[in-house]
Amino acid sequence: MLKRFFILCSGADKDLIYSCSNGEQNKYAGIGATVFFTAIMAFIASAYALFTVFDSVYPALLFGVVWGLLIFNLDRFIVSTIRKREKFLSELLQASPRIVLAMIIAIVISKPLEIKIFEKEINTVLLKEKNEMAIANKNQVSNYFKGDVTKNQSEIDSIKSNIKAKEKEVADLYQSYITEAEGTAGTKKMGKGPIYKEKREAHDLALRQLDSLKATSSKTITEKEARSKTLQADLDKKVADSKPIIDSFDGLMARINALGKLPSLPSLFIMLLFLAIETSPIIAKLLSPKGEYDFKLEDTETALRTHIEQNNYQRNLQKQTDASIYDKVYEDIRGDKEIYDYKRKAATELLKMQSDAYVEKQKGVM
Predict the structure, then answer these.
(1) Taking the complete model, does pTM exceed 0.85, yes or no?
(2) DSSP assignment, residue 98?
(3) Which distant-in-sequence residues (6+ apart) come within 8 Å of 72 by Cβ?
(4) Are 261 and 125 in contact (CB under 8 A)?
(5) CA-based angle 31:33:35, to the nearest 5?
(6) Helix H segments across the chain?
(7) Residue 207 exposed, middle or buried by CB count within 10 Å (0-12, 13-18, 19+)
(8) CA-closest candidate to residue 114, choices 45, 35, 57
(9) Is 243 helix (H, G, I), strand (E, B) or coil?
(10) What is the spatial distance between Cα 10 and Cα 262, in angstroms, rounded to a whole number?
(11) Residues contacting 3, CB < 8 A, separation 6+
């Protein structure tokens, strides 16, 4: 049962192969098994590749089955259409387009499995890239809000700086009138004279201005500090919103690019392995000697070709013979006087009818 299935996979003619020896049947069963298992590997590779894209099992399995059947059909077609010839160079030339196609299929099949085999290394590369993207994104968002944040903070700092300057002025005025009263500075006369009163009034005025400045600035500072918190919250929200996008940066294309950043030698060996597997049915058929099945297939095709050529030759002969006979028949008819008189009479009647019709038409116009 299994042997019959693998022979079916090889694309060999059922009637011819079962009329061959057991060894010949085993050879084509081996070729069919290679075709079948190549399709299985194509199914696994494509299913995994689509799973990384859709992150869902059922679409990946569905596409994997379709892709596996497609590869199976292509391989079966490639193997079944190669014909054994007398010269190996002719066979190789005949199989060269199929070998190129097999190489393309092998590369397509191997890439998803390489991604799975080197998954841990690829995850490391992706993690590094995600961290770099997160830092770059945060810097970009910070630069976007930098103007507003800087302007708002500078306004707060300016107001606080004005308050500090006024506080220093009040403190200086306070020290001035105290030292005036003590007689240690200013006029250096102890007591509360006119100069002391002037300095005290100047201090009291500045203190009232400071209180007024603090009262008016307090609301402004509160509003601007609230705006600073809002800007910071918006910045954090922008960074948080972009985080899931960065975290999801692990699709098929990202993994292929990450695979390209790993050492190429292991990946090359895996691709060569799949290339050997994919081309093995073709190589096996090219290297195998011309067997019983090939002779019988060639005999069947030659018999059919000869039969078609004979039929075509007979049709051409019949066509030429018929043409020659009809040429002679019409040549004899051309000299027959009875036929000539009959044609002449019919032509005369037709000319008379045309002449009468023309006259009637002219009368109608006049």
Answers:
(1) no
(2) H
(3) 9, 35, 36, 38, 39, 42
(4) yes
(5) 70
(6) 2-10, 14-17, 22-54, 57-80, 88-117, 119-182, 194-247, 252-260, 264-287, 292-334, 337-365
(7) middle
(8) 45
(9) helix
(10) 38
(11) 25, 26, 29
pLDDT band at 190 (very low <50, low <70, confident <90, very high): low
Q: Rounded CA gap, 298 and 315, in Å?
A: 26
Residue listed under structure tokens 């019409």: 330
User: DSSP label at 115?
Assistant: H
Residue 33's CB: how many other CB atoms inside 10 A?
Answer: 18
Measuring CA to CA, which residue among 281, 288, 277, 287 is closest to residue 23? 288
Query: What does the DSSP assignment read for 308-334?
Result: HHHHHHHHHHHHHHHHHHHHHHHHHHH
DSSP state for residue 186 in the 8-state scheme: T
Residue 311 has pLDDT above 80, yes or no: yes
Rounded CA-CA distance 277/326 in Å is 65
Cα–Cα distances in angstroms (integers) from residue 194 to residues 101, 171, 177, in the given order: 110, 20, 11
- Annotate 63-89 with DSSP letters as a single string: HHHHHHHHHHHHHHHHHHT----SSHH
Closest CA to 11 of 74, 59, 58, 91: 74
Q: What is the pLDDT of residues 143-155, one digit of tens each?
A: 665 566 666 667 7
d(CA 121, CA 261): 10
Domain range list for the chain: 2-118+262-289, 143-249, 308-365
Q: Identify the weakest region by mean pLDDT among 12-16, 18-22, 62-66, 242-246.
A: 242-246
Contact 136, 73 (CB under 8 A): no
